[in-house]
């Protein structure tokens, strides 16, 4: 069974990336950081796999880059 992709919140993203909140939102606007997902009326999060991909290689990360998963 494939592993589920968790949704993580801003506090976790800040800890994993070492970026500030304002830098994350600026990078989202520039297209150089994964966009957040709306998970409720007032809540948002990120796919953990996207944040991990960005942390592994922030220079080459791109929203059009496909993650190949084996089933």
From TrEMBL:
<protein>
    <submittedName>
        <fullName>AlpA family phage regulatory protein</fullName>
    </submittedName>
</protein>
<dbReference type="InterPro" id="IPR010260">
    <property type="entry name" value="AlpA"/>
</dbReference>
<dbReference type="InterPro" id="IPR052931">
    <property type="entry name" value="Prophage_regulatory_activator"/>
</dbReference>
<dbReference type="Pfam" id="PF05930">
    <property type="entry name" value="Phage_AlpA"/>
</dbReference>
């Amino acid at each position: 069974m494939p592993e589920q992709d968790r949704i993580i919140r801003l506090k976790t993203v800040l800890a994993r990336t070492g970026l500030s909140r304002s830098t994350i939102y600026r990078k989202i606007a520039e297209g150089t950081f994964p966009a957040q997902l709306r998970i409720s009326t007032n809540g948002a999060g990120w796919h953990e796999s996207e944040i991990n991909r960005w942390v592994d290689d922030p220079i080459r990360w791109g929203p059009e880059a496909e993650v190949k998963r084996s089933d």
